[in-house]
Amino acid sequence: MAYTPPVSDITSAIAGPRNRQIHLRRIQLACVSGAEAGRSWTLEQDVIRIGALPNGEVVLSDMTVSRRHAEVVRTKEGILLRDLGSTNGTFLGHVRIKEVFLAPETRFKVGRTEMLFTTKDEVFEVAPSREQRFEGLVGSSVAMREVFSILERVAPTNLTVLITGETGTGKELASRAVHNRSRRAAGNFVVFDCGAAPENLVESELFGHKRGAFTGAVEARPGVFEQADGGTIFLDEIGELPLELQPKLLRVLEQREVRRVGDTRTKNVNVRVVAATNRDLREEVAAGRFREDLYYRLAVVEVALPPMRDRLSDMSLLVGHLLKRAEHNQGVHSLSDDVMDTFQSYHWPGNVRELNNVVERALPFCDGDVVTMDALPAALRAASANRRPRTATPNLAQLKAVEASADADRPFKDAKDQLIEAFERQYLIDLLERHEGNVSKAARQARMDRKSITRLMKKHGITR
């Protein structure tokens, strides 16, 4: 009997929203007096330039306003108003300022023009989307539909987005989805892999170079930021960016201007930045390998893509999607039951990318319209043969720990979380004891990623 992936509406119930929120930060500047009196600007950028230059975010025609007069900057400590060396100054009341943090409903003057600052932040509860697809992303699990909900909110804005997740979870697909659903969809979508370019050429690839800037620079060349002008740049594996180049990227994000290698002039660029990493950038910051201020600039909105093992309920929908889009599919439309069982039981260290490779690799070895076990790679067949029965139950110690932690006096969700915590801890203790503290062997036994085991050990205070 063949297992045919469904293409109908969502059938899985939403088992309790996780009460997550998304905070969309916006700044509003209103002109109280001056040539633009009555006009206001609501902006999402972290850096808002005020002046006479036509490429600024707030352009004023007041003759006493300098070309680059002041800027409003979102920092970790608050909203900062900074004078940029203007001729006629920036004033808070009667005091000329260089830098000052702004409170909501604060008035300040640039030249003779008076401005009113306030915030227009919005907080949204992240309820799972009703859709099973978002551009190239597919999933009916609560985890994926929460991702869709966040992307639906964020894509139409100009906010910088940081997408995190293990290798193969679909970070580039998510970034393309953000671009395609944005107001920049007609512009370029430019991809730059920070870990793929030779270290001595990363700066040139990012920002471009002038002719003769270095050996081999026989002609001037724009970098990816210039190529993405008017569109979106996707900085993949941002955690691989050399530490010495991070201040230069930070400056581009703040000033929205680039300077080619070997050049003294700068060029303004209008780009939206979406970055991605499979590293924990907070840990990288703590270790001194990634700048905290750059992380803050990139993670205006942070979207975490779940690994395949945490969204196995998406398997049938994903397989159906992959079969339909496979270029060399000659009519295969379903999986045999044992293949689906194998897919559901496998750990998928390569996530959706690995699943896609397995499906495409199987197609030439299918004799009919069904993927059978004979079409799977030998390693996957071996993993299927060696796996424990899916009906395996926790041992007695684990069951006793779970039973002891049950508390009917608590709300259902709290009691359930307590049971899960107790089970996780006892399972890990038993697992590590069986393998004499060897985390790699324990991970293989549990069909989990080694990092996941380590993370759970840290969570529960378990040492080897």
Q: How is this structure best summarized?
A:
By secondary structure, this protein is of the alpha+beta class. Helix 8 packs across helix 10, helix 13 crosses helix 15 and helix 14 packs across helix 15.
Helical/strand content category:
alpha+beta
Shape: globular
Mean pLDDT: 85
Number of strands: 27
The rounded Rg comes to 27 Å
Helix content: 25-40%
C-alpha termini separation: 46 Å
* Oligomer state of the chains in this structure: single chain
Count helical runs: 15
Regions with little confidence, pLDDT below 50 for 5+ residues? 1-19, 388-394
Strand content: 15-25%
* Strand arrangement in the largest pleated sheet: 4-3-13-12-9-10
Largest sheet: 6 strands, antiparallel
Tell me what the structure shows.
With 464 residues, this protein is an alpha+beta fold. It has 15 helices and 27 strands. The strands form 8 sheets. The protein has a 6-stranded antiparallel beta sheet with strand order 4-3-13-12-9-10, with no helix packed on it. Helix 13 (412-434) packs across helix 15 (450-460). The protein is globular and about 80 Å long. It starts with a strand and ends with a helix. Mean pLDDT is 85; it is low at 1-19 and 388-394.
Question: How is the topology of this model organized?
Answer:
Layout: E1 2-3, E2 21-24, E3 27-33, E4 40-43, E5 47-51, E6 58-59, E7 70-74, E8 79-83, E9 90-92, E10 95-96, E11 99-101, E12 106-110, E13 113-119, E14 122-125, E15 133-134, E16 137-138, H1 142-154, E17 161-164, H2 171-180, E18 189-193, H3 202-207, E19 208-209, E20 221-222, H4 224-227, E21 232-236, H5 246-255, E22 257-258, E23 267-268, E24 272-277, H6 281-286, H7 292-298, E25 301-304, H8 315-325, E26 334-336, H9 337-345, H10 351-362, E27 370-371, H11 378-386, H12 396-405, H13 412-434, H14 439-446, H15 450-460
Parallel strand pairs: 5-6, 17-24, 17-25, 18-21, 21-24, 26-27
Antiparallel strand pairs: 1-26, 2-14, 3-4, 3-13, 5-7, 7-8, 8-11, 9-10, 9-12, 12-13, 15-16, 19-20, 22-23
Helix pairs in contact: 8-10, 12-13, 13-15, 14-15
